[in-house]
Design goal:
about 45% helix; 11 strands; 4-stranded antiparallel sheet; about 220 residues; alpha+beta; about 25% strand; single chain; elongated
Length: about 220
């Protein structure tokens, strides 16, 4: 669904945008869009035209390498702007990846020129966006450090547990999506999942994984 009228969700998620004048809003041509889980909400081609603010839900930021390989860089949550989007816009370089919805999400799109203009002219917006950008870069660094120090089993268990619980044991994720998230290959992830299934920890099917023994996966996380 697409609407061009701003709704209360915008200022709830981004109070800093209250400094934008009615004239600036009109010039920015704001559009609020809703996306279902597992859909692409932002691609590199759109970075030349839009700035994006995530109003609700969670999204996965992935980098597309020159050879076509995909790797998850970070996650985006309500009230955040993608650090790569800000940096690519300010530098004039192409956006290097995609943003995929992990849950149902709602996002505000504005014209790129307005987005970059607000960063330069509104101190409150600049402080909020760049503060979030710093947090995002620190999170990316922490995730990279963890990937280097954690075992495959720990990374895979964390990915499975992050989106599941005793009340919601079913994950709608493919082996490829898990591999991208933890920075491994599909074949390696499939072998690990096969081992978990043989041990009775999970059940699997085409595009889904059901957690049977949550405590066994939690034990892989260590301390």
């Amino acid at each position: 669904m697409i609407t061009k009228s701003l709704n209360p969700r915008v200022l709830e998620a981004f109070p800093c945008l209250s400094v934008v004048t009615p004239e600036e809003w009109a010039e920015a041509q704001p559009t609020v869009r809703k996306f279902p889980a597992k859909s692409c909400i932002f691609q590199r081609e759109e970075a030349g035209s839009y700035g994006m603010f995530l109003l609700s839900g969670t999204a996965r930021i992935s980098r597309i390498a020159e050879d076509g390989g995909e790797s998850v860089i970070s996650t985006l949550t309500e009230g955040e702007v993608c650090a790569l989007l800000v940096l690519s816009g300010l530098s004039g370089r192409d956006y290097p990846g995609t943003i995929m919805a992990e849950s149902e999400v709602e996002a505000l799109f504005v014209a790129k020129e307005s987005f970059l203009g607000w960063l330069q002219t509104h101190t409150r917006i600049r402080g909020a966006v760049f503060g979030g950008l710093l947090d995002g870069l620190l999170r990316i660094s922490e995730q990279s450090d963890r990937r280097r120090s954690e075992s495959l089993d720990a990374r895979l268990a964390k990915a499975l547990l992050r989106t599941s619980s005793e009340q919601k044991p079913l994950l709608n994720m493919t082996h490829h999506e898990l591999a991208v998230e933890i920075g491994s290959s599909r074949e390696v992830v499939s072998r690990a999942l096969r081992r978990y299934r043989q041990q009775g920890w999970i059940e699997t099917g085409r595009g889904w994984i059901r957690i049977i023994r949550l405590e066994e996966l939690e034990s892989l996380l260590g301390d």
